[in-house]
Each structure stands twice: as structure tokens, then as C-alpha cells.
Amino acid sequence: MLIDQTSIIHCYEKIQKKAINGCVTVFIFVAFDADSLCSLKILTGLLKSDNIAYKVLPVTGFSQLEASIDECQTSESIQSMIFINCGGVLDLTQKWFVTEKTKIKAYIFDNHRPIHHHNIADKNNIVIIDDGTQNQQNCPEREDEILQMTAQHEEDEDISDNDNEDQDYSEEDDDDLQEYEDEDEGFDENGENKLKNKLDKKRKDLAYEDEEEEEFGKKDRREKNRRKRRSDKKLKEKKMEKKLKIEQHKQKMENYYEGFYYGKATSMLMYKICQQANKENNNYLWYTILGATDLLIHGKITQQQYDQMYEELVIEVEKVNIQKQEFSQDLNESIANEQRQKNIGFIEASNEYRFICLRNWNLYESIYYSNYFATKLEIWNENGDQKITRLIALLGIPLEEAKQQYKFMKAQFKEKLKDNIHSVATKYKLYNVLFNSFVRQIDEKTQVSSTDMVYCLTAILECPKQILQNIFEDPLKVGQSIQTDKTSDNSEEGSKNYNEKDIFDRIKNFWWAYETISSKEAVLILKGIDIAIQFQKAMVNEAKFVIDRDLITQCSDFRFLKLNNDTYSQNQYFQHPYSLQKLALFLMGIFKEKQKSNQPIKPIVLSIKNSITQTQTIIGVVGNHYSASTKNDFAFKFQSAAKALNLQYKQDDFETSIIEIKDQDFDVFLDEITLAK
């Protein structure tokens, strides 16, 4: 059942009413991305403020989600399930809390599209918060599915059985004639002529009757044929009408599930609860900003979609922070405006450069390694460095100033950057060097942008544990310890242990990121940003290496790159599928610039080998961003290829354009998706 976001407070009120003092009544399932983290922070803050006990269950994919749902069956106090960026594309109507007709409500806050139509159709247990991006008009209904299920059965039946109607003659004449012929057997030769005459007369009479009835029979047959044709025509029309209806419903189903895309940031929906409950504050607003920024910088939405969210957010920023300023003025009229803006937690709108992590890096490398400038200035070419050097010179900034930490760069050169960036960028056809964003005061000395904060959180979520454990203390104890130091000669057992360890490590990363998002210690955030910088350098250098060596293969409908995990960078940074996606999107940007035309860019398929599990992780991207008009259909292509070849595969991630297969099956799988149409 769909609930409009304007009525979202009613869902929260129902969760409140079902809460039981001293019992955990709310179970929260949450995915592993920045928007999910931010949404969780808002939700848990609200639940705490209303003294509602809850349990958080981070889930890495569908199998872990389903296992976690099944485990909840043992809870006697569970009343509400909340799904954050997971559960929407899974058919929850098959789960125990629906099939057993419980009173448990499942509330889905999921930016993945399309939402499973069974979840929308359910009127009792499942509630989906609609952000306005759900394609409800084309959503299949129960009628569509029932019609499609019965279609095949009806096609196998013989619906016309008209064989008997083909007989359009009467057997009465033959019976009469047979009667007289039978009499022939009862006469002797003396009565032969008399009987013969009688038979001849009868035959003549019958012949005359036949002539009359033949004419009548022709008319009767013609009438029967006309009736049969009319009946056949009606039957044919009825069959065609039903076939057309079946095709329409089938097409509706295919159109609805033709590809993968995203809705609005889920954190925006969570903030709607805050607004409708009159519980807005700067922390919740900051988390909402980060969620929207996450979708933008990771290519999940278009700039236009982000701008729509930005317009809503900037109004809230001005409202919440103006109230804070006015409160400060009431306390002390002498507080200067500059000092007020340095209040810890203060948020303001800002035009941010499309450089990456500039506040924590130097200008030269921030330009060189940013996705936007790296692709536009073609840093993979021999003269890429020269272009950046010339650009900095035209800005009026000495190279030595550009190569030192930005925070130590002289104020006069920071002003020159601000004053000259537009005119200089135009010469290089860089027309979008600034974009609308936000910054927040973390402490008295540290200001962080929303983009840098999202890069920080994403790096922590995706980074190998061995890098993070030197920065963070052990987070909340999650589950039971997993023995990971044991080795096994059995490859399947070793693979299982690796997968368990991988999930365990990712959950640790999740809680580290959760700790960072609300940290008042700037040092923790800055260390996370440093990790993000190292990943960005690795990604750009990997892409440059790939282009220099011409390692990308041209297939008929897509480009393909296979990473063999034979370098430190690949092993360290690209084992996580989301990191692999970022590399693919960056390569898409490069080919867009190399193509120099408005023709559609070929999708890219990337794979990397996991030497421990002897598997290949394969991802597919279709463009620099997803939208309702730019959908990623690799999920279905990958699944169809694996099924056609009868391969063992794992398509477990909520980002469904990711698949894992055995390394030995890789070549035939690639051939299959290459030939598929």
C-alpha cells in the first residue's frame, strides 16, 4: 500500500501507539550507503526522543535481509518493521508476517526503483512511503498477473471442437431405401417383377424427394455455414481480444521492470517526519543534506533532480539557522555576525567548487583527481598535466602555492581563485565548475562541506578493515565472533568463511561510519576524508592506467574491462562492488569526453577476480547517472545469461546490476551477454 509523503506522520504515530514500555517493538533493517546511514540517524533520534525501544539490523544484501526477517519471528514483542533502502524490490508478501496474517506492519523507505508490485498491492501489512517518483500508472496489478498465469494454460487447450458440425447431410433417405431392399429377401421369383416395379417406383419417388430436399439442403447447408462462420468469427475475435489483452498486460509488466533507477533520498522522507512532528533541528537537517548529496555525487540522480531537493533544503537551512541566529541575538546583542556563523553545528548554503576534498588537500591534486576536471582536462593524455598547470597559471596562482595544503594557501590567492575561476574555466569549456551545496561548522576551527562528508562516510563503508582499524576503536559488539584465522583445504568451506568474515567486517565498517556521522571530533572526520582522498587517487590512477594500456575491450553493445586483482591498488580498493561501480562511472565520463558527440555512450561492464573465493564480481553501468528515463537493465541481462547457461551465481546486492559467478564460468558468461539482445 502506498502512502503519500504528506501523510507520513500517520505512519510514525502508528509506530508510537504500538510501542510497549520495556520491549523492543521496532526492528530496523538498513542498507550500507550514506543515505541509509543518514536516514537511520534521523529515525533513531526520533525514536529515542519518544522512548521507543528499537533494534538496528544492518544488511548487506537480500540473503542477509531475508535471514534477518526470519530471525525476527522469534520475537514476541515485534510490532513494526522499518526497511531503509532495502526491502522495496523484494516480494515481502511471501514473508511470514504476511502469510501468517499477523498484525505486524512493515514500513518501506526505499529509494531503489521499481518497487515490487506485490508490496504495493498488499493492503494489510506493507506500507510504502511514496516520494512521488514511483511509476504508479504503469505498476502491474493482481489482474495482470492472474491473466498472465492463465494465458499459457488456455493456449494448451483445444477451445474449438466442431467436428460434428461438419456433417450437413441426413441419413433418413438411406434408411427408407434400406427398408425396401430388406423386403427383397422375403419374395420368390414369381413376385420378382411386382417387387421390382415397387422398388423402382419407390426409387423414383425418393429421387424426386431428393431433388426437392437437395435444393432445400443446399439452403440449409448455406445457412449452417453462415452461422458457423459467424460463430467462428466471434470466437476468433474473442480469442484475439483476449490475446491482445494478455499481450498488453505482459508488456505492462515488462515496461515496469525494464530497468533499475533511483527515487529521492530516503533521508528527505525521514526529515518529513521531523517537519510534521515539529521536531526539526540542525542535526536532522544535516543528515538530510548528506543523503541528498550522496545520490548526486555517486551518479544515482541527475543534477536536475538534486536541484529540486536543494530548493527544499535551502529553505529549511535558512529557517532553522535563522532561528538560531535570532536566539543568539536575544541573548547577547553584541555578538557579531561572523562569530554567530561560527557556532558549532551551524549550516549554510554554499557554492562549492567541483574539486574534490579541497579543504583537506591541495589545489593542484584536488583539480587533478576530481571526476569533473580529470575527464574534462583529459588527464590520461600526455599533456593532461600541462593543461592543469596552465589553468592554475591563468588563475594567477603560483604553482608552489597550488601544491601546498589549501588551508595554508595565502588569502590573496584564494580570492584570485574565486574571482577568476569562471572566466578561466570557460576557456577550457568547463561550464559547471560550481554547484549548489552546503557546509557545516564542526568545531571552532573546522568547516566541512556536505560532499566531503559523504566522501568520508562512503570511504569508511567500503574501505578494507585493515586500514580503518588503525583509526577507529572496536565499534559496538555485533553478533558472535567469527573464526577467521583458520584455513581450510576445502575451497567451498574457505569461501564460506571468507563471506562470513566479509559480512562481519562490513558491519564493523557500518558502525564506524555511524559513529563518524555525528562525531563532534573533527579529527575523526578528517581521517575519514584522508581515506577518501587515497581511494580517489587510486581510482583515477587505475583509470589512467587502463586507458594508457588500452585494456578496455569493445563489444557490440558495451565496453568491457577485466581487472585481474594483480596490483596492490586493485586488491586494496576495488574488491568492494560499489568501489568498482565508481571506477566504471568515471570511465564512462572519460569515454563521453573522448567521443566528442551527442551519441549515446556505450555502457561499461567491469569485473574483478577474488582470488580467495575464485569468483568474479561483475558490475554494469549504463551512464553517468540513473533516472526514470535512463534505467540500468544489466540486472536482467546478467540473470538471463546465468540462467541460460545454468550457472551458479549470486545476485544478492540491493544494487541489482551486480552479479558474482565462478571464475571458471566467466568466459562463457561474457560470450552470452555479448550475444544477447
Automatic annotation (TrEMBL):
GO molecular function: chromatin binding; DNA replication origin binding; single-stranded DNA binding
A Pfam short name: CDC45
Localization of this protein: Nucleus
Compositionally biased spans, kind Basic residues: 224-233
Region (Disordered): 151-195, 207-239
Keyword field contains Nucleus: yes
Key words, A-Z: Cell cycle, DNA replication, Nucleus
Assigned protein family: Belongs to the CDC45 family.
Protein name in the entry: CDC45-like protein
Organism listed in the record: Tetrahymena thermophila (strain SB210)
